[in-house]
Specification:
single chain; 373 residues; mainly alpha; two-stranded antiparallel ribbon; 15 helices
């Protein structure tokens, strides 16, 4: 056993106590539970009734005795000495010291140091301890409000078992009993039925129509509902499987959303558009979306990354959507005409200068000016 487990076991044994040793207040947040255990321990002791009187009514006052008058003195009353106590008075006197001793043994030093100044009076120790742990009247009212609010807002969580729901509900009801607030059997049963999950609707309806619901203890109601738990869980599993969303094609989903968006926009448009125009508009939006999503980007090696870890190679840019009902205009490319070269000698086509048969007379222009030739 580990050291932590051993410490936990020792603390648990001390907090529970035994027949000869009172329970110890280990955790301050569990004062109410400890208080119940401590009172139970005191009541089980041989002189338990007198010890409870010491805690709730205070220590016994010293009994008085009457001294009869004599010839020279008058009658008077004085306190009895311990030897003059009768059996009942002696038990009451012993109970004061026993109650104080058990209370001191039940408190750790961190708590006992707060009330050590009242150690002569067990009732003051007990009262001050309640004030420190439970607070004043304001704290008590706030606690009562919290307990009652827990009952009103109690609701079973989705997927929570019936046993867990009942255990928590019983703790909530028990908190009401601590503040002296009680619920009738009918109120507790209806509150428990209304707090269950929707899959219990059929069983709850059957129990509400039961004539015993007004007198049935909450434990019996829980045991009856336990017989239906397997059927309810099986029915819930079938509904969950039926209502489980199936995998949806993201492209089809996006196209549907864009189509709905286009239709909604066309609904508010003053111009009248037919269904074909709305569908065309939706497809154009879809085409523009994918062009923007998969277009080439500079500085990123022309790669487009999706939400996953795989890389997507860039694809050719998608063409704009052309509606089927609109004829497509096909433009044939022009045929390239063969370029014809002209002769630089005679200026005619069909041959080049080296194949030209027309002879050119050199300096003919100059000979005409001189009058020669």
């Amino acid at each position: 056993m580990s050291l932590q487990a051993q410490v936990y076991k020792n603390d648990l044994m001390m907090s529970l106590g035994s027949d000869t040793r009172p329970p110890v207040l280990i955790n301050e947040n569990e004062f109410e539970q400890w208080q119940d255990r401590f009172i139970n321990f005191i009541e089980r002791q041989p002189n338990g009734d007198n010890m409870m009187k010491s805690l709730t009514e205070g220590p016994m006052e010293r009994p008085m005795k009457v001294i009869p008058a004599t010839a020279t003195t008058l009658a008077s009353t004085v306190k009895k000495s311990l030897r003059e106590y009768d059996a009942d008075e002696l038990l009451r006197y012993q109970a004061d010291s026993q109650a104080k001793s058990n209370l001191i043994l039940a408190l750790p030093n961190s708590i006992y140091n707060r009330i050590a100044c009242f150690k002569q009076n067990p009732m003051l120790m007990w009262t001050q301890l309640e004030k420190i742990m439970l607070g004043t009247v304001v704290s008590t009212q706030l606690r009562q409000t919290r307990y009652m609010n827990n009952v009103e807002e109690f609701k079973a969580k989705d997927g929570e078992s019936l046993k867990n729901v009942f255990d928590i509900f019983w703790v909530v009801i028990n908190d009401l009993y601590k503040i002296k607030v009680t619920k009738t059997e009918l109120e507790a049963n209806l509150k428990f039925l209304n707090a269950l999950q929707p899959e219990w609707t059929k069983s709850c309806h059957r129990m509400r129509n039961d004539v015993r619901i007004s007198t049935m203890p909450i434990q019996e109601l829980y045991e009856i509902l336990m017989t239906d738990e397997s059927m309810v869980l099986e029915k819930k599993a079938k509904l969950d499987k039926k209502n489980k969303p199936k995998s949806v094609d993201p492209i089809a989903l996006l196209a549907s959303q864009l189509a709905e968006q286009a239709l909604s926009e066309s609904a508010f448009d003053d111009s009248t558009e037919d269904d074909g125009e709305a569908l065309e508009k939706a497809m154009i939006l879809l085409s523009q979306h994918y062009q923007k999503k998969f277009q080439r980007r500079t500085g990123s090696n022309n790669l487009r990354f999706t939400s996953g870890s795989k890389k997507v190679e860039p694809s050719a840019p998608s063409k704009a959507y052309t509606p089927k009902y609109e004829p497509v205009k096909v433009v044939e490319p022009k045929k390239e005409e063969k370029k014809v070269m002209n002769c630089f000698n005679c200026g005619k086509s069909g041959h080049i200068a080296k194949d030209c048969i027309v002879k050119v007379v050199k300096d003919s222009f100059l000979q005409k000016e001189d009058g020669t030739g």
